[in-house]
Design a protein that fits this description.
By secondary structure, the chain is of the alpha/beta class. The protein is 50% helix and 14% strand. Strands 1-2-3-4-5 form a five-stranded mixed sheet, with helices on both faces. Helix 1 crosses helix 2. The radius of gyration is 23 Å and the shape is elongated. This is Restriction endonuclease type IV Mrr domain-containing protein.
Length: 263
């Protein structure tokens, strides 16, 4: 099969190979792809860079990626997840692309947690239509993260509240206040803010600590996830693992950073 692969690579470059280096490169890539060690476009770029440091320009690396796809050396599932990553990367932070980011996040949440959460609603009205929740989902889960926060941690969460923030900077006080304002006994006390990046981790944890201690009787729980978390959850799902692991680590982080936490 290695011989057939070499013939295929020769065909790809239409016999325009000046050296056998390219055969070596693509043979190596083929092995890494089969072994699931190449999963993202950046993995291909790294392989090229490790092979011949600084020899290839960015557009040449992109061309190699396109060739791998064209000749079906990259499995379709890997092609699809890279498309999702590129779509997210192409959404510019800021008000202009806020709707596109919101829509992308809604689709991703359904993809990641559709087995646990149902009846996703976009721009759900509350307070007699005076305000709207970005995304809300019914928590009907019987297993997984959203079931465990209810059964193991006694968090009131008949619904899960999501707010997406397409910001070019860290979340600020009003963004945290907004999601807390969505909470009620009927809707629940658990929400997730999705944003583009988290630069000041200490400030974020302090905000979440204040939220946790805001209600004397029923604790409020807010998790914050960013683009990297979204990508990692998509990767976990594609590899047959639980995207819940990211949320579990976030909740654990809160538990170990809240002095009065009872988790």
């Amino acid at each position: 099969s290695d011989y057939l692969l070499q013939l295929k690579i020769l065909d790809i470059f239409d016999n325009d190979l000046k050296t056998l280096d390219r055969i070596e490169l693509f043979s190596t890539m083929h092995i890494l792809i089969v072994q699931d060690e190449i999963f993202l476009k950046r993995d291909v770029f790294k392989t090229v860079e490790d092979w011949k440091p600084e020899r290839f320009l960015e557009e040449e690396k992109n061309e190699i990626w396109k060739i791998l796809i064209q000749y079906k050396m990259i499995p379709e599932r890997i092609v699809e997840i890279n498309k999702k990553f590129e779509k997210l990367n192409n959404i510019a932070p800021g008000l202009k692309d806020a709707h596109n980011y919101h829509r992308f996040i809604e689709i991703v949440l359904k993809d990641l947690f559709g087995a646990q959460l149902t009846n996703f609603q976009n721009e759900n009205p509350i307070n007699l239509g005076k305000k709207r929740i970005d995304i809300v989902a019914k928590n009907n889960s019987v297993k997984g993260f959203f079931s465990e926060i209810r059964s193991n941690h006694n968090i009131i969460c008949p619904y899960i509240i999501f707010e997406s923030k397409n910001l070019s900077h860290d979340l600020e006080n009003p963004h945290y206040d907004q999601i807390v304002g969505r909470f009620s006994y009927e809707k629940g006390y658990f929400g997730i803010i999705i944003c583009r990046k988290i630069e000041n981790k200490e400030k974020e944890l302090e905000q979440l600590r204040e939220i946790y201690n805001k209600n004397r009787f029923d604790k409020y729980y807010v998790l914050v996830i960013d683009d990297n978390d979204i990508k990692n959850m998509l990767l976990l799902k594609e590899k047959g693992l639980k995207p819940d692991l990211i949320l579990e680590s976030k909740l654990k982080e809160l538990a170990f950073n809240f002095a009065k936490a009872e988790l």
